[in-house]
Structures are given as C-alpha cells and as structure tokens.
Amino acid sequence: MIIIVAKAVQYGCKNVYQSMSRAITLWLDLGSDIAAKNMKERLNNDAKETLKHQTQALTQIHSEVS
Description:
Layout: H1 2-11, H2 16-65
C-alpha cells in the first residue's frame, strides 16, 4: 500500500499533500505494529524467564523443607 501511494505521487502532484500524509501515516502505523509485536514477544520471553526462576526457587525451598 505504501508503494502504491508513493508511485501515485510520482505521477502527479495535484494531491501530493494528501498522498504524502497518507504514506507517512501508513509507514508509522506499520512501524508501530512491528514494535508492538516485538514488545509482546519480549514480554513473553521475560515472563518465561521469571517463571523459570520462580520454579527453581520453589523447588529449592521444597527440597530444603523435605
């Protein structure tokens, strides 16, 4: 979609302000979606790491009590 908007600007400048505005909006939305996906994956990895540490701590406590 971004490429189509950019090519439209190439062939005419009658609506360049609307076209460039739309292209920038699409580009930033795409970047935002990618950043959100990366953050979600990182949080999932952090949560897995935290769960692993908690499980190890509980296992150690259980072995000490038993």
